[in-house]
Amino acid sequence: MKNLELFQNFVSYDPATGEMRWRADRQQVRNETTPSYKMWLTVYAGRKAGTTVPSTRSTPHRSLKIRGKYYQAARVAWSLGHGEEIPSGHDVTHLDGDCQNLRLSNLALKVRRHQDNVPKSGHPGISWYAPHQRWRVFVRTGSPRPKYIGTFESLEEAIEAKLLNDSASSGPARHSGASRGA
Predict the structure, then answer these.
(1) Distance CA 1, CA 8 (A)
(2) How many angstroms from the chain centroid is the CA of residue 97?
(3) What is residue 87's DSSP assignment?
(4) CATH: 3.90.79, 3.90.75, 3.60.21, 3.40.50. Which one for 3-112?
(5) Of 18, 87, 90, 102, which one has the fewest beta carbons inside 10 Å?
(6) Distance between CA atoms of 128 and 146, rounded to whole angstroms?
(7) What are the two backbone dihedrals, phi and then psi, of residue 110, each rounded to the nearest 5 degrees?
(8) Which fold has domain 118-169?
(9) 25 DSSP assignment
Protein backbone atom coordinates (compact mmCIF):
# COMPACT_ATOMS: atom_id res chain seq x y z
CA MET A 1 0.00 0.00 0.00
CA LYS A 2 1.44 3.36 -1.01
CA ASN A 3 1.83 6.07 1.64
CA LEU A 4 -0.96 8.24 0.23
CA GLU A 5 -3.44 5.35 0.25
CA LEU A 6 -2.37 4.49 3.79
CA PHE A 7 -2.83 8.09 4.95
CA GLN A 8 -6.22 8.37 3.25
CA ASN A 9 -7.39 5.17 4.94
CA PHE A 10 -6.28 6.10 8.47
CA VAL A 11 -6.35 9.91 8.74
CA SER A 12 -8.84 12.68 7.98
CA TYR A 13 -7.27 16.09 7.40
CA ASP A 14 -8.76 19.59 7.29
CA PRO A 15 -6.43 21.77 5.15
CA ALA A 16 -7.91 25.04 6.49
CA THR A 17 -7.26 24.29 10.16
CA GLY A 18 -4.46 21.74 9.86
CA GLU A 19 -6.33 19.38 12.18
CA MET A 20 -5.79 15.64 11.73
CA ARG A 21 -8.02 12.97 13.22
CA TRP A 22 -8.03 9.20 13.05
CA ARG A 23 -10.79 8.14 10.66
CA ALA A 24 -13.91 6.58 12.16
CA ASP A 25 -14.86 5.14 8.76
CA ARG A 26 -11.55 3.50 7.91
CA GLN A 27 -11.55 0.21 6.07
CA GLN A 28 -10.17 -2.98 7.53
CA VAL A 29 -6.79 -3.62 5.91
CA ARG A 30 -5.48 -6.94 4.67
CA ASN A 31 -3.96 -9.24 7.32
CA GLU A 32 -5.76 -7.33 10.08
CA THR A 33 -7.92 -9.47 12.33
CA THR A 34 -11.48 -8.37 12.98
CA PRO A 35 -10.97 -8.06 16.77
CA SER A 36 -7.92 -5.79 16.35
CA TYR A 37 -9.80 -3.69 13.77
CA LYS A 38 -12.75 -3.24 16.13
CA MET A 39 -10.41 -2.42 19.03
CA TRP A 40 -8.69 0.23 16.89
CA LEU A 41 -12.06 1.81 16.07
CA THR A 42 -13.01 1.83 19.76
CA VAL A 43 -9.75 3.39 20.96
CA TYR A 44 -8.68 5.76 18.16
CA ALA A 45 -11.56 6.62 15.81
CA GLY A 46 -12.34 10.36 15.80
CA ARG A 47 -9.48 11.32 18.12
CA LYS A 48 -6.67 13.75 17.32
CA ALA A 49 -4.02 11.93 15.28
CA GLY A 50 -0.38 11.91 16.26
CA THR A 51 1.78 12.93 19.17
CA THR A 52 4.18 15.79 19.74
CA VAL A 53 7.81 14.72 19.51
CA PRO A 54 10.57 16.83 21.10
CA SER A 55 13.45 17.77 18.84
CA THR A 56 16.99 18.93 19.57
CA ARG A 57 17.35 20.73 16.22
CA SER A 58 14.12 22.70 16.04
CA THR A 59 10.79 23.17 17.72
CA PRO A 60 8.83 20.03 18.62
CA HIS A 61 6.97 18.46 15.71
CA ARG A 62 4.07 16.02 15.40
CA SER A 63 4.45 12.42 14.37
CA LEU A 64 1.94 9.70 13.50
CA LYS A 65 2.44 5.97 13.94
CA ILE A 66 0.58 3.97 11.32
CA ARG A 67 0.92 0.19 11.11
CA GLY A 68 4.14 0.26 13.15
CA LYS A 69 5.89 3.00 11.16
CA TYR A 70 6.35 6.65 12.13
CA TYR A 71 5.49 9.48 9.72
CA GLN A 72 6.05 13.22 10.14
CA ALA A 73 2.66 14.91 10.44
CA ALA A 74 3.70 17.64 7.99
CA ARG A 75 4.43 15.04 5.30
CA VAL A 76 1.07 13.36 5.93
CA ALA A 77 -0.74 16.72 5.79
CA TRP A 78 0.97 17.77 2.56
CA SER A 79 0.20 14.43 0.88
CA LEU A 80 -3.44 14.45 1.97
CA GLY A 81 -3.91 18.13 1.10
CA HIS A 82 -2.48 17.78 -2.40
CA GLY A 83 -3.68 14.23 -3.06
CA GLU A 84 -0.27 13.03 -4.20
CA GLU A 85 2.90 11.44 -2.90
CA ILE A 86 5.82 13.68 -1.96
CA PRO A 87 8.40 13.45 -4.77
CA SER A 88 11.66 11.76 -3.82
CA GLY A 89 14.41 14.18 -2.88
CA HIS A 90 11.94 16.67 -1.39
CA ASP A 91 11.07 17.68 2.17
CA VAL A 92 8.10 19.55 3.60
CA THR A 93 8.89 22.85 5.27
CA HIS A 94 6.78 25.13 7.49
CA LEU A 95 6.68 28.63 6.00
CA ASP A 96 6.14 30.32 9.38
CA GLY A 97 8.70 28.10 11.17
CA ASP A 98 6.04 26.67 13.52
CA CYS A 99 6.19 22.88 13.27
CA GLN A 100 2.80 22.59 14.99
CA ASN A 101 1.04 24.65 12.29
CA LEU A 102 -0.12 22.02 9.80
CA ARG A 103 -2.40 24.24 7.70
CA LEU A 104 -1.89 23.45 4.03
CA SER A 105 -1.21 27.14 3.31
CA ASN A 106 1.76 26.92 5.73
CA LEU A 107 3.35 23.85 4.12
CA ALA A 108 5.66 23.92 1.12
CA LEU A 109 7.95 21.48 -0.63
CA LYS A 110 11.65 22.14 -0.77
CA VAL A 111 14.33 20.24 -2.61
CA ARG A 112 16.56 18.32 -0.24
CA ARG A 113 20.05 19.65 -0.86
CA HIS A 114 22.96 17.25 -0.86
CA GLN A 115 24.84 19.67 1.38
CA ASP A 116 22.32 19.06 4.18
CA ASN A 117 23.97 15.67 4.72
CA VAL A 118 27.59 16.82 4.53
CA PRO A 119 29.26 17.41 7.92
CA LYS A 120 31.26 20.52 8.81
CA SER A 121 34.47 18.81 7.68
CA GLY A 122 33.15 18.91 4.13
CA HIS A 123 33.77 15.16 3.82
CA PRO A 124 31.03 12.57 4.35
CA GLY A 125 32.08 10.09 7.02
CA ILE A 126 34.35 12.57 8.84
CA SER A 127 32.98 14.60 11.73
CA TRP A 128 34.31 16.60 14.66
CA TYR A 129 33.97 14.74 17.96
CA ALA A 130 33.86 17.53 20.54
CA PRO A 131 34.23 15.46 23.75
CA HIS A 132 37.69 14.27 22.62
CA GLN A 133 38.55 17.30 20.45
CA ARG A 134 39.40 15.00 17.51
CA TRP A 135 38.11 14.13 14.04
CA ARG A 136 36.13 10.88 13.92
CA VAL A 137 36.07 8.69 10.79
CA PHE A 138 33.45 6.17 9.64
CA VAL A 139 33.14 4.34 6.32
CA ARG A 140 30.05 2.83 4.74
CA THR A 141 30.07 -0.90 4.16
CA GLY A 142 27.36 -3.29 3.08
CA SER A 143 25.96 -3.43 6.62
CA PRO A 144 23.38 -0.97 7.97
CA ARG A 145 25.87 0.52 10.43
CA PRO A 146 28.94 2.40 9.26
CA LYS A 147 32.34 0.94 10.18
CA TYR A 148 34.27 2.95 12.79
CA ILE A 149 37.85 3.70 11.67
CA GLY A 150 39.15 5.87 14.51
CA THR A 151 39.80 9.42 15.70
CA PHE A 152 42.54 11.75 14.46
CA GLU A 153 44.07 15.00 15.67
CA SER A 154 44.10 16.72 12.30
CA LEU A 155 41.54 16.82 9.51
CA GLU A 156 44.26 15.87 7.01
CA GLU A 157 45.00 12.63 8.92
CA ALA A 158 41.29 11.84 9.05
CA ILE A 159 40.89 12.40 5.29
CA GLU A 160 43.90 10.18 4.57
CA ALA A 161 42.51 7.40 6.79
CA LYS A 162 39.10 7.68 5.11
CA LEU A 163 40.64 7.52 1.62
CA LEU A 164 42.76 4.49 2.56
CA ASN A 165 39.74 2.64 3.93
CA ASP A 166 37.50 3.65 1.03
CA SER A 167 40.01 2.29 -1.50
CA ALA A 168 40.53 -0.90 0.55
CA SER A 169 36.80 -1.57 0.78
CA SER A 170 36.22 -0.97 -2.95
CA GLY A 171 38.83 -3.53 -3.96
CA PRO A 172 38.10 -7.07 -5.16
CA ALA A 173 35.79 -9.19 -3.06
CA ARG A 174 37.54 -11.46 -0.59
CA HIS A 175 36.33 -15.01 -0.11
CA SER A 176 36.95 -16.91 3.07
CA GLY A 177 37.16 -20.65 3.52
CA ALA A 178 38.61 -23.36 1.37
CA SER A 179 38.01 -23.29 -2.34
CA ARG A 180 35.98 -26.03 -3.91
CA GLY A 181 37.68 -28.10 -6.50
CA ALA A 182 38.20 -31.59 -7.76
Answers:
(1) 11
(2) 19
(3) P
(4) 3.90.75
(5) 87
(6) 16
(7) -135, 150
(8) 1.20.5
(9) S
